[in-house]
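Forum: Protein Structure Q&A
Topic: Joint prediction for protein chains with partners

I've read a bunch of threads here and the consensus seems to be that you should model interacting components together rather than docking separate models afterwards. I'd like to see that in practice. Below is the full input, 622 residues plus whatever partners are listed. Could one of the regulars post the assembled result?
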Amino acid sequence: MNQKITIPAFFLMVLAQLYVPASMIFQKERVIAQGTAYKFRTAPIDPNDPFRGKYITLSFNETGVKVENAEEWNNADEVYVFLTTDSNGYAMIQSIIKEQPKGSDDYIKANIDYIMTDTLSTVFVRYPFDRFYMEESKAPVAETIYNEAAIDSNQVAYALVMVMNGDAVVRDIFIDDVSITEVIRKEQNKVK
Amino acid sequence: MKLSREVAELLKAGVIEQDTADRIEQYYLTKAGPPQNKLVIVFGILGSLLVGLGIVLILAHNWDELSRSIKTVIAFIPLLAGQAICGYTLFRQQDSITWREAGSTFLVMAIGACIALISQIYNIPGNLSSFLFTWSLLTLPIIYVMRSSVASLLYLCGITWYACETGYWGYPERESYLYWGLLLLALPHYYNLYKKHSESNFFTFHNWFIPISVITVLGTVATGFEELMFIAYMSLFGVLYQIGNTTILREQKIRNNGYLVLGSLGSVALLLGLSFDWFWEDLRTKEFSTEAMVSSPEFITAVVLTLAATALLVYQKKRESPFTIKPVELVFLLLIGIFFVGMTSPFVTILINLLVLAIGILTIREGARHNHFGILNYGLLIVTVLIICRFFDTNLSFILRGLLFVAVGLGFFYANYWMARRKKRVKSEE
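Posted by a regular:
Agreed with the consensus. Here's the joint model:
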């Protein structure tokens, strides 16, 4: 390639390489700034990701919704989930639809996880946010704390999630309304 | 330099004139371009790779005492550094392979680190295939702008992993047709290597990476008619074998010719697998709907690959003597016939055993012809493995099996001894 093409091509390449991560950031920042906050009840575990360090895998309690005819839905299909809150203020699914909604931006794009047919007629979804990254030394501590919280029925663990236009960002994890980072800090101080 | 020593010797012996000697040296100087130290290139690339991977790991620690905005800025630092190094290389060090390859390697790693950190900051879900896809796509321009072969090799690894992640390990399992488009995008660089640097190590690496990548990913095509993938794979090995036999690759050492090695090994391994009756038993009991089968992606893949292999075979035969048969070149065509036999008759395993035996013998013959110990022993090995396979599923008596092994073992000794003697004789006649 001669110099005349190489130089503009180089700058185009640089721009593209900066644009892609930057647009990821802007999109997520917008959800954080303008989205609606929901609390999702959780139960976590601690795996490992080769590139992105330690995280807590989030699994949620409220993932099922009754539908009229379960046979109309297929495993792994994309669905749009409308949310509402229960009497304690935690998120639960109001309804799911197959087409992207217009006129509202308070929904999540998810996939169908599994379906129960017959009398139960319930569709379970898999949310697109299933990770919360933590500093590697803290992730195992977080796991222990979570498992204790899961056994102890007096404690409530939930994820605070910002939702907007099908997209979602996990902001923090709370145990009894205290941020997990704070809980870990207290725990580590206790040990010292 | 070896060449200048040779030239000096020829000059001293009066074989060439000073003028000719000068012209020879001048020719090789201009042909080779500016001198490049291979060791420096290798360490430059390895160094960048390690530093880049180190940065990915350090960022993966997830420094949660830093604020979101600071972490976001940090994510861009390695990327900007990589781009700066590549920019410097383009403007100031354009002819240095070390700078180009090391800088590109670092930039590839920095892109990965940047997207990974952003995913981490915003807890973007663990969809590894979309991560690999974005990473590979952003790596692609580096191959051409920087003319970097390492970037091309990393790109090939990236798209292969992406295809496996989508096609084999992902949930929901999907076809990864995008892979084939991404692979095509890497080929112009490969073609350029073939045209201009066919003696370089980078070309050799590509000759291994590309066929391995294609072999790995082809299986993702399968949906409901997996049986047809055996034909598709056999034809793919046929295509690879034919490519490996083209003039420019045939001239390379066998260990540099990934196409030939993989084509041959793949064909033999597949046949050995098919020489057991379990596959055919399953095939005979399965009911096919012809209509669904003909429109399945497996069928289309098998047809396309078989046509490609046949076209290459005809092309090769036209160029060289059509009656010399290379060991595995007709296997993909024979398998189609065998496949039809196998749908109805248990007789098929005998055919396959005979075919593998024939390949073994043809390979031994080829080894003997070319005085090549490696090929000769490969042929013997094929026969041995065939016998070992039959060890497991036949009702032959122990005595017979034992005798077979002794016979093949003696064959090994005799064939090698015979060839060593022949080599010695040829040498002494010279």
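Chain A has two domains: 1-34, 35-191.
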